Amino acid sequence: MRAMKAKEIKVWDPLLRLFHWTLLGSFCAAWFSQGELFESLQDRLSGELLQEVHVWAGYAIAALLLFRLFWGFVGPRYARFSDFVRRPGETLAYLKAVLSWRAPRHLGHNPAGGAMIVILLLSLSLTIVSGLALYGADKGLGPLAGWLADAGEGMIDAIKETHELATNFTLLLVVGHLLGVVWESLLHRENLVRAMLTGRKRA
């Protein structure tokens, strides 16, 4: 056991791991609290309760995104954007190597994983901003209510469409991220989910 631990090094810091799993939980809470998804739940739970869960999950995601932006500049080495944000050409070359099972192993995020993180953060940001806009325009509540409380039906429909598209695109990215984790775990014969739980990877 000691020999195995000696061959491992710490990669993911505790705050980054907490961010990762809390973001996953918050996104799931926001997704599953959409009233339109579970109309049968409306008979058992009040629509107001589902709305409260959805709104507070959105606020949690917003706070987590702000933290990740901050941590991407001041966090430990493997948490910083400078460690995993690569040029598009380098990312495409890595993806080609992945498909041919010849991709090199990275202790931190590989170029494809880094690109996925950036796109996920941007997509989540659009989801949150459009959600806050919809909350302000449709309900007259939230930090954007002062600007959007008098919005007409046309604007509300446009904001709602944007929010739904951003949410579904984010969900698609999450699925892609999970597939990438499985692929890389098989390619390099290491459990990446376990690494995000323990913070340690094979040296």
Automatic annotation (TrEMBL):
Membrane spanning residue stretches: 12-33, 53-71, 112-137, 165-187
GO biological process, one term: respiratory electron transport chain
Predominant localisation class: membrane
Pfam family name, one: Ni_hydr_CYTB
Designated name of the protein: Ni/Fe-hydrogenase B-type cytochrome subunit
Taxonomic classification: Bacteria, Pseudomonadati, Pseudomonadota, Betaproteobacteria, Candidatus Accumulibacter
InterPro entries (alphabetical): Cyt_b561_bac/Ni-Hgenase (IPR011577), Di-haem_cyt_TM (IPR016174), Hydrogenase_cytochrome (IPR051542), Ni-dep_Hydgase_cyt-B (IPR000516)
Gene Ontology cellular-component terms listed: plasma membrane
Subcellular location: Cell membrane
Domain Cytochrome b561 bacterial/Ni-hydrogenase residue range list: 11-199
This protein's UniProt keywords: Cell membrane, Electron transport, Heme, Iron, Membrane, Metal-binding, Transmembrane, Transmembrane helix, Transport
Similarity annotation: Belongs to the HupC/HyaC/HydC family.
GO molecular function terms listed in the Swiss-Prot or TrEMBL record: electron transfer activity; heme binding; iron ion binding
Membrane topology, as annotated: Multi-pass membrane protein
